[in-house]
Amino acid sequence: MTGSAPTLAPSTIPPALRADAARNRESIVCAAAKAYASRGTDVSLEDVAHLAGVGVGTVYRRFPTKQALLDTLFEGKMSEFAEHAEQMAALACSDPWRAFSEHVLFLVGEQAKDLAFSDLLRDPEATSPAFQEHHRRSIAASQALVRAAQQAGLLRDGFSHSDLLLITDANHGVVQHAGQDAAAASERFGRYMLQAFSSR
Fold it and tell me: Where is the HTH tetR-type domain positioned along the sequence (predicted)?
């Protein structure tokens, strides 16, 4: 009778093998983070494997799909983004223009740091439920920011929350074309937009 190979329980896996697997995963995540930040979400798992110095099969064992890798990288980042938006919504009760301005500059700054995150901010529909929930939190908070600034008479007539989405789309193009100057170019763009939106 032919027996099947025994399956090792996690506690019986040799420490060297566990350490090697952990190093591979760390290499994959680090390589992916750098590639996605500079090139956006079009980077393939094959590209990630090459950059990480591991086989494609190793990447697929850790992350069966590209979306699984993106979720690992960006769910936490989206949560932090939502938390910042909520903090600014709270600040808007006492200082609506400062809160609105800081949110806009934070938005364009985060886009400049990571082109893939900018991609996902603009099109969150294909992301994980957790990412989408954090995205909804950020939208609700930014809507509150806009209402507070409008009620204080600080925004031009006709301004709506959809104009923030236009900023996101437009700044994505700025980031794509600015290269190493993306951070400075995005901040400059954000400040120009604040001047344009202000009623003062």
Answer: 22-81
Predicted local distance difference test score (pLDDT) of residue 199: 93
Amino acid at 171: N
Q: pTM for this structure?
A: 0.85
Same domain, 86 and 151: yes
59 plus 147 within the same structural domain: no
What is the model's pLDDT at position 60?
Answer: 94
Question: Cα separations (Å) of 186 from 20, 103, 111?
Answer: 40, 13, 8
At residue 21, the pLDDT reads 82
SS3 track for the chain = CCCCCCCCCHHHCCHHHHHHHHHHHHHHHHHHHHHHHHHCCCCCHHHHHHHHCCCHHHHHHHCCCHHHHHHHHHHHHHHHHHHHHHHHHHHCCCCHHHHHHHHHHHHHHHHHHCHHHHHHHHCHHHCCHHHHHHHHHHHHHHHHHHHHHHHCCCECCCCCCHHHHHHHHHHHHHHHHHHHHHHHHHHHHHHHHHHHHECC
Report the first-to-last Cα separation within the chain, whole angstroms: 86
CATH number of the domain within which 37 lies: 1.10.10
7 within a domain of the structure (yes/no) = no
Same-domain status, 47 and 87? no
Under a CB-based contact definition with an 8 Å cutoff, are residues 119 and 37 in contact? no
The reply to whether 5 falls in a domain is: no
Domain match, 185 and 86 both: yes
